[in-house]
Amino acid sequence: MAKRKENEAGSSTGHRADALRVLGVLKAATADQIQRLSSPHLTYRHTTKDTAAKRKEARTASHRGALNDLRRHGLAVDGGRTRGGEEVRLLTKDGLAAAGLELDRGPEEMGGMPKSAGRSGASHAMTVNETVIAMIRPKPALHLVAGEPAEAIAAAQACVDAPDGIGSITSYATEVALPSTGTWKNPGVGCAWADIVLIAPEVGLPLLFIEADNCTEEAPIIAAKFDKYMRHFHRKVKDTDGQDKPMWRTRWSAPDPQWGDATHPPVLLVFNQVGPRPALSQMKKVAALTREHWQGQEADGFHLYNGKMPIVATTLELLREHGPTGPAFWRFGRADRQNLWDAIGNPRRDTALARRAEDARRRLAQEAAEREAQRPVCADCGAKFTDDRWKASIAVDWGRGDSHPHLCDDCKTRALEAEQQAEQAERERQEQGHQEEETAQASRAGGWLGRWRS
Asked: pTM to 2 decimals?
């Protein structure tokens, strides 16, 4: 088959777009990572190859071809090799612009290049990428693995049946500046740079910052990042409405209350056990050094975190095993691991408030039942009084009570009408009696006068 001129390496336009989207977010990645993110079904193809190396070569062939095409068009460059010997690809300036079109993001939203990209095996960039993959947990389309060996189909089915991850590649951004001075476009020296930013309001995560660490940095260096985060969170600028608000809210939104009752967005620390420092020990040390940023106040069985930043930690191994929905996350200040939503939230507070609301509902229901038991019934028809009728029946107006306190509105109306009719009949009877009396008197007077005249 003749190769198209615009795709000299023989890649499809779709695979080129996949590579641009992934590199536009991750900035530096291998063909294997791009394939696992954009075409996870290929992971379950070519399973009959003799060795793992041959299987990997076969399943990544299309994306390697796409990367070669991007390189020939000046959109990507070689970025060295990982410690495992895999080629790393980076986008050029033109490549970032092309990726921005694929992702529908402006230049200021594309973020910076990863730390040490293309140098020293790009170990940090690779950990960032693996963290994104572990958060997304891409699932294969089963119809695309039809016809493969039974073991491969079973493995693909197991992946589909496993707990979901969060979002897609377009839900993420990397190397995002969080300026404490300067602007979004030109951040000041010493600002925080988020390794990963996740925006997934559709699953209850309007904003999550993620930091990846290979267990190579000392705990005080990691802790210092949170000082920079907090300086950014405290910074206020004028928004388009002329009102001062936290700078981060001019770029991202989050509902109120945000995360449990915490004021500032949460940060997730993901440790990859590559370096010599034990991940668990690093978590404890960083927690102790950042206490002022995350520690809440005791409040009747739970903690309040107003003005604080939720800091959550896990390992890449736990994240891969359990995913975001599993017990992989330790919130600084808590004893047990939780799923991501509980870890960044305040479930004890939610439970306590829900219990109080339920107690209040039951109390109101009991009071309503007791009141209902006291509700009067009409002495005539037996119907229960309405609230308004009940209130009117016991009201006192200038010393006068209700004329018919034991009757409902309808029966009272009929009683009043009957009384009025009776009063009217009595008046008519009395008037008739008066007339008859007057007639009789006139008759008697006429008789006496006649006799006197005669």
From this structure: 0.79
